[in-house]
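Hi R.,

Here's the chain you asked about this morning:
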Amino acid sequence: MGLALQELLRLPALSRARVLGGDLARQVSWVHVVDLPEPAPWVRPGQLVLTTGYAWPREAGRLEAFAHTLAEREPAGVALAVPQFFERFPPVALEVLAGKGVAVLELPWEIPFAQVTEEVLRRLLARQLEVRERVHLLHRALMQAVLGREELETLLERLSQLLGRPVRYADAPLGFSVPVPLGRERGGYLVLAGEADEVERQALENAALVAGLIVAHQRALAEQEARLGYAFLDALLEGRQEALTWERARAFGLDLNERYRLGVLVLPLSLPLSERDFQERERVSQRVRDLLKRQGASALLSLSLNQVRFLLPERLDPQGFLRELSGAWPLYLSRPRRPGELRGALEEVERLFAFQEPGVYLYETHLVPRFLLGDEEAREELRAWLATLRPGELEALLAWVKGGFSHKRAARALGIHLNTLRYRLRRVEEKLSVSLQDPEDRFRLELAARILLLQNKKR
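And the predicted structure, written out as tokens:
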């Protein structure tokens, strides 16, 4: 049993929707958020389909075929959030859908899908409650669960108390079971051990709707949070300071005083992405999100083609992080920065893309390999690396390099005491965070020093 779409348009979340065509008398049995390149398997007859149009084709011919495929699934209506990925409902898709009787709506972008989902499903549930007076007490309890934003476990406890028998959630049907509706996807079952009378049957059928509402609402909120998170991270990377407020940082779990590296995982996926590739990228991004949460970090992500971008707190070990992900991918990381200083971090990461073997690539530790691969920016960064030294310290370093790393030859060339030279070189180590005894650090210092000597000769 459903509700006419025309009646649902009086709901607050849909009252601002613009009706463009189609049959408003169609019965809506469910509402579903679908943002996939091939939505047909996820759409069922009678559904109100909510979409941003993100995965819709843009070429007219493909869009027309896409609309025909969608119309064949006989949804009650299709509501497109605008303006974002589309300024308005594409005319070619509108003509096809409305011609098949599918109601076509434009929904203002700022209206959350979670709000639409909650209000529509609550209204559908209310209709069920009206026609089942025999389970009035159970209905009231179920409505309290919805209005109280209860978790699924709380709902099951309340239902078990009212029925006097345990009700549980299971992945497979056992005893008397009612499937939890989540569109095309199987959402598990509400299970009552043994036989069930008519009241218990109706109670579980209604409870399954509520459980589906709870799960769908939680997922819709998660999807909305993810979309907002993508936009927020992208704004930080673009240096849009107006996006970085204390409230937003707190909402996404960012500490404005902590330093973060921009991390980019580049997945071995073909471009353009296939549906399977999209699913793989989503699987990996969820693993990254879960790992960040487990380690007490902000699960702020952004996706772009075959890349998963995120912020890794400086306190976390990149090698250990990639190891826990258990993925054979390259992980590129920028220098650590505070959230308000992330502009340019993506450019740093992109300079590391020449290294394609699985592993961790830190921007600041790959200056020399980048220079040897012909990265002109690396040359300038090596030179600028020494710019923090005072004249006496730089002079000591250059003499030490020219003298073949001999302290005595360097001190003699400069005409200073050996202890003075050693003091200045200790200052070099402290300022540049290097060790003159480490072969890698010594090589990097020598390379930077010789670049500076060559540039000085040209002047």
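The mean pLDDT is 80.

Let me know if you need anything else.
M.
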